[in-house]
Amino acid sequence: MKQQDVTEEDLVVLAKRFRKQSGIRRAQAARDMEVSQTSIFHAEESPAKGLTRLRVKMIEKYSPYRVKGPVFFLEKK
Question: I need a surface site. Which of 13, 52, 61, 72 has the fewest CB within 10 A?
Fold first, then answer.
């Protein structure tokens, strides 16, 4: 299987897409992830929020994919 690079914004989109495709509402996702509904909302709507681990957990639960990472790049100033 080919690996694909994804950004934090991609994780936001994928978490929401896979949850919805699974027919899971935010309230149920919150119970599944043992977090508040507000956390699910922010994970799906706010890329700037530091909720990467929650997004990864959602993607892995509601899709056939596994997320590997994180990857950081060092760039000259």
Answer: 72
